[in-house]
Description:
Blueprint: H1 7-19, H2 21-55, E1 63-68, E2 86-87, H3 88-97, E3 101-110, E4 118-122, E5 125-129, E6 131-134, E7 145-146, H4 155-159, E8 164-168, H5 169-175, E9 186-189, E10 192-201, E11 214-217, H6 218-225, E12 230-231, E13 233-238, H7 244-258, E14 269-273, H8 274-317, H9 319-327, H10 332-371, H11 385-411, H12 415-420
Parallel strand pairs: 6-11, 8-10
Antiparallel strand pairs: 1-13, 1-14, 2-12, 3-6, 3-13, 4-5, 4-9, 7-10, 9-10
Helix pairs in contact: 1-10, 2-8, 2-10, 3-7, 8-10, 8-11, 10-11
Amino acid sequence: MKQLLDRDTWSEIFQSIRKNRLRTLLTMVGVFIGIYIYIGLSGASKGLDNGFEREFKDVARNSMFIWAQNTSKPYSGFKTGRRIQLKLSDADVLRKQVPEIMAIAPRNVRGIFGSSPGLIKRGTKSGNYSVFGDFPEFTKIATKKIYDGGRFINEDDIEQTRKVCVIGERTQKELYNKDEDPLGTYVNIDNVNFQVVGVHKFLGGGPLDNDSDIFIPFTTYQKLYNTGDFVAWFTVAAYDSVDVVQVEQDVKTVLRRIHDVHPEDEKAIGSFNLGEIFKRIFGFANGLTFLSLIVGIATILAGVIGIGNILLISVKERTKELGVRRAMGATPSEVRNQIVLEALVLTLLAGIVGIIAGAGTLALIGVFAEQAGGEFPYTNPTVPIPYVLGSMLLMVVLGILIGLVPAQRAVSIRPIDALREE
C-alpha cells in the first residue's frame, strides 16, 4: 500500500508509458476494442428490451389472440371448408379446461376484418370508426388509460345492457370542440344514442387498436348489431409462470373439440401468440448480451496478453535500470509491484476509455432512435451498472495476472548481471 501511494512510483510508471507512446497506444487498442464491443452489444440488447417493453407495456406479456377460420379436413360428417364460429359460451369452457388462463376476453368489432365501420354522429359532425364490443376483463390483458373523470366498461354496463361508450382521443378531437368536455354527452352510433363515460388514450394496446376506437358493452353490441352469441375472437392472457406456447395449443385443442373439428386440423383455429414473440425477442436480446460477454472477454484477454508481451519487452529494455534499483536496495516485491502496477494502469486506462466511447456511441444511437419517432422498438440503450463494474473488476484481475509474468522476469534479473548489460 505504501508503494501504491508513493509519488515516485507513479512518476516512473507514466515515464515508462511516455517513453514508448506509440507502442503503448497500440498495445491498449486490444483492451479498448474488447470493452467497447462488450458495452456496445450489451447496451444494444438492453435498448431492444426497453423498446419492446415500451411498445407493449400495457399488454400482458403472455397474451394471445384466437379466432375461427375454415376447416381444412373433413371430420364427424362435416366437409372440408366449413366455417367455424366462436361462441360466447366457449369462454366459460376454456376457463374451466385450461387452468393456465389468467384472463379471457371475448371481443366483437365493426370496422376491421372486412366489416363496415360504425357511423358515429354528433350534431353536424360525423365519422366512421371501429366499434368494439367488450367485457371489463379486457383491461386485465390490455390496459386502457382513461382520462381523468372517465371510466371503462364495467360489470353493471354488461348486466344492464347500458348504452354507454368509451371514445378515443382522436374521435374526441374530430367530433367535439377544442375545450368541450365529452363526458356525459351523447353520440349516435348507427342510429342509437350512447352516453360517453370515458375517453381513452391510445397506448399501443395490441395490433387491432388505435386512437379512434369506440368501446361499448359486449351485451349492448349484441343487441345493436344482432350478433347473438357470436364472438369475433378471444383475447387470452396466461399466467407469467406457464409456457404460453403450450397454453395456445391447449386452447386450440379445446376449441377444436367443442366445434367438432379434426384434432389435427391446424387451419381451423387461427392465432397470434404475442407471448411467443416476446419470448423470442427477449431470447435474442439475452443471446446478444451473452455474445457480447464472450466476444468482449476474448478481445480483452487478447489485449491484456498484448500488454503483458509489451511489458516483457519493456523489462528487457530496462534491465540495467532494474539492476541499479536492486543494487540500491530495492526489494523483489517492490520491483514486482512496480511492473504489476504498470500492467494494471495500462489495462484500466484502455478499459475506461472503451467504456466512455461505448457509452457515447449508445447515447448517439438512443438519440437517433428517438428522432425516428418511435417507429423502431428501441429506446434507452444503456448498460446496467453491475455490468460495468463487473467489466472493471475483470480488467483489474486480468491486469494483475498478466502483469505477474513480466514482473517475475524483472525479479529474476540478478543485479550484477544487470549492471553488465549495455
